[in-house]
Structures are given as C-alpha cells and as structure tokens.
Amino acid sequence: MNANRWFDFELSPTVHLRLGDFENRWAAIVRSGSITTDGVGATARDALVAALAPLGPRATVTLMAQPVMFAASAELLGVPA
Length: 81
Fold this sequence. Notes:
Layout: E1 5-12, E2 15-21, E3 26-32, E4 35-41, H1 44-52, H2 57-64, H3 68-77
Antiparallel strand pairs: 1-2, 2-3, 3-4
C-alpha cells in the first residue's frame, strides 16, 4: 500500500499497530500474536476500531484505553514528544 505516511505503535507487549494515512482515508493493521486484522476508516480512530473489532469488544476497549494511545494521538497530530 502506498500511504502518504505510516505510523507504528506497540499497544502492549503482544499487540502491534500500524496506521497508514491515505489522504481521504486511514488503514489500520493490528497484529496480536499470530492474528492479523485490518480496518479502514475516514479517521485513524475509525480504522483502528475496525481493525480491533475482530478481537472482541473487551479487547477493543482495553487497548483503546492504553496510555500509549495518548502518545499515538500526539504523533498523529504532529505534536512533539
């Protein structure tokens, strides 16, 4: 995929996230152990929620609430760490 930019994050020791910015949409790839899921959305958050959905509601809520998501949001917005 040819995204304008890619962002990589580790949500937990076993869950890795990759977000791609395609100008008018976002793609998310989530790898959890041997499971890989993906999602597309109008926003990075929409794409992430779509990619996490196959892991179940509890996992989605737990991962979205991780403190690392604040750093991810800041990086996506271009805020210096």
